[in-house]
Amino acid sequence: MKITKVERYQLRLPLTIPFQTSYGVLEEKSLDLLILEDELGNQGYGELVSFEQPDYIEETISADRQLIEQQLIPRLFQAELQQVEDVWSLFQSVQGNFMAKSALETAVWDLFAKREQRSLQSYFGSQKSTLPVGVSVGIHVTTEDLIAQVSSYLEQGYQRIKVKIKPGYDIVPLSAIREKFPDIILMADANSAYTLADLELFKQLDQLNLAMIEQPFHQRDFVDHARLQQQLQTKICLDENIRTVEDVKTAYALGSCRAINLKIPRVGGITEALRIVDFCQTHQLLVWLGGMFESGIGRALNLQFASQTIFTFPGDISAANRYYAKDIIKEPAKMEKGRIAVPQGIGLGIELDWRAIQEVCEQKQTYSSNHSINQ
Ligand code: OSB
Ligand code: MG
């Protein structure tokens, strides 16, 4: 297969409610839609999910756009892809920049599926047609507001609640939720905001019957995470630390965690994500699917991937209306009885809503294999 054309739509979607984490507030989501075309005119869709600020991890969307244009698209145009995994090898001479690679890698998977007239799900041997889902709740100013938000999500049917924490906003809000809802699947996500000096706090959190505590320490640390895991009953889950299967091996060897939040874009795409799933399966690590405030394109990818039988823990894959008033695909993801349907059809199984895309598009760029055109 030859890639002959790439279109890049630079979009900005306003969030329904601001999302606060230990590192900052998100009010609008920047994202790029990438459309790859092959020599037969098939199209594959990818989403670039990185943020404008380098606060979650080091990647930024502006640096990713440059890398995609200057490094990744030229490699794609030169390649003759025999099988879908070839795109992973093609990008190996570029270090890091996982979300940039993932935007194109996942689009190539969609393109192969379109060519072969099969669903993306069918490549993973998956059977599930609906998935149980959870929701990630941002930091709220008052405990009352937080409880009201959690109650509302539970009423809507979300099967697992993740609460963002930061120093000074942790044991009090979490205890309040646990007291009000003794039986829900509850967890916390610190986004790297603590150190081992906070051990006493984690021992208190350990009493709340949390499903797990996500990313308590620095995203380059494996050793202190292991020291903490040794002293807790509660599972530690790593998010920011995990970029490759080698990171999962390190975490496993040291005992740094018992669960992995797998985000396809954070590990550079589907090929690496499959390696991680495989490692987790053979080593009894709990693996579940995380999110990046994706639009309907990235969400369709997450649903296709999370339909594999190994994903039983409800992921951060919420209904479209939890994130955006208006999604950019036809038939945005809806939740029914705490579950979201895996889009059916070939490839990602979605249709783009061009009117919605045009409303939020800031810039469009076309690259073709013989020359680049700016529009
Ligand atoms: O740490 O998991 C995280 C969103 C953006 C960046 C990082 C994280 C999150 C979430 C929400 O927790 C995931 C989602 O619902 O898309
Ligand atoms: Mg996280």
The H-level CATH homologous superfamily of the largest domain, spelled out, is Enolase-like C-terminal domain
CATH class group of the largest domain? Alpha Beta
Gyration radius, in Å: 20 Å
- The domain tally reads 2
Report the principal-axis shape: globular
Tell me, rounded to a whole number, the average pLDDT.
97
What is the fold named in CATH at topology level of the largest domain? TIM Barrel
Spatial strand sequence of the major β-sheet:
5-6-7-8-9-10-11
How many strands, which pairing sense, and closed or not: the largest β-sheet?
7 strands, parallel
Discrete helix count: 12
Low-pLDDT residue spans: none
What compounds sit in this structure?
2-succinylbenzoate, magnesium ion
- Our measurement of the CA-to-CA distance between the termini, rounded to an integer number of angstroms, reads 26 Å
Fraction of residues in β-strands: 15-25%
Secondary-structure element sequence?
Answer: EEEHHHEEHEHEHEHEHEHEHHEEHEE
The CATH architecture of the largest domain would be Alpha-Beta Barrel
Helix content: 25-40%
Count of individual beta strands: 15
